Amino acid sequence: MKRQQIVAGNWKMNKDLAEGKDLAKAVAAQKSASDVVLILGTPFIHLSAVSEIIDGTDNLHLSAQNCHQEESGAYTGEISASMLKSVGAEYVILGHSERREYFGEDEALLAKKVDIALAHGLIPIFCCGEKLDVREAENHVALVKEQLSGSVFHLSADAFGKIVIAYEPVWAIGTGRTASPEQAQEMHAAIREMISEQYGAEVAEATSILYGGSCKPGNAKEIFSQPDVDGGLIGGASLKAEDFVAIANSF
Ligand SMILES: O=C[C@H](O)COP(=O)(O)O
């Protein structure tokens, strides 16, 4: 079965509204006619406007970068999954290392976020990945297994079949230091094996696993050519339409 190829941009906390609209318009104007699913992961306040801009396009989709784990209530400053759905988001990035590091998000909390996102019809792009010390101690595969076990392996096979996994080695995020294609392939194959053990080969074969961490037009082709790499979660390079679309055209 052919897996979905996905290139998702994570704008993080960048671009004011006017700049974000310009970026979305530029991506919409340049996008390729290929089968690649292109996702714009915008700040919350951009979602409505970007949703209108990409409405009617073939392969452009909208993602949020986080959601709260509860349905609604007294959580000042927070945004719920149903709110995201109501403004046109189809995806939500969960478990990003910056959320883990700066906002203390752990596996138990992320499991709740994954559940509520799915309950509202959002597709989680679930991030996992090790820090440098873990990689150097060669515990990276075990660590990623813990992350997946704690946050997504409680799902039924049906529910798991809806999600996207993003492997992002923390040491490669925003550092200019990319995982080598071999390092990416090793981990992606290991993740697919974990999924296979949990849900069987069919689900594992159908799951899109994205690579993230200093992915750029110059290195995307080599990384995406690995058999278990199904695309990328792109930070810095997603802020320039030309670079983002060039990455999408790297399959
Ligand atoms: O979500 C995206 C990743 O954190 C990668 O960021 P980067 O491409 O700037 O290294």
From TrEMBL:
UniProt-listed Enzyme Commission number(s): 5.3.1.1
Enzyme class, broadest EC rank: isomerase
Protein species of origin: Flavilitoribacter nigricans (strain ATCC 23147 / DSM 23189 / NBRC 102662 / NCIMB 1420 / SS-2)
GO cellular component: a single term: cytosol
Signal peptide positions on this chain: none
Residues binding substrate: N10, W11, K12, G174, S214, G235, G236
Any one GO molecular function term: triose-phosphate isomerase activity
First-listed, main subcellular location of the protein, grouped into a coarse class: cytoplasm
Protein name: Triosephosphate isomerase
Single biological process term from Gene Ontology: glyceraldehyde-3-phosphate biosynthetic process
Quaternary structure annotation from Swiss-Prot or TrEMBL: Homodimer.
Pfam families xrefs: TIM
Catalytic residues in the record: H96, E168
PANTHER family tied to this protein: TRIOSEPHOSPHATE ISOMERASE (PTHR21139:SF42)
Gene: tpiA
Domain of life, per lineage: Bacteria
Localization per Swiss-Prot or TrEMBL: Cytoplasm
Keywords, comma-separated and alphabetical: Cytoplasm, Gluconeogenesis, Glycolysis, Isomerase
Coiled coil: none
Pathway annotation: Carbohydrate degradation; glycolysis; D-glyceraldehyde 3-phosphate from glycerone phosphate: step 1/1; Carbohydrate biosynthesis; gluconeogenesis
Reactions catalysed according to its record: D-glyceraldehyde 3-phosphate = dihydroxyacetone phosphate
Chain's role: Involved in the gluconeogenesis. Catalyzes stereospecifically the conversion of dihydroxyacetone phosphate (DHAP) to D-glyceraldehyde-3-phosphate (G3P).
Family classification: Belongs to the triosephosphate isomerase family.
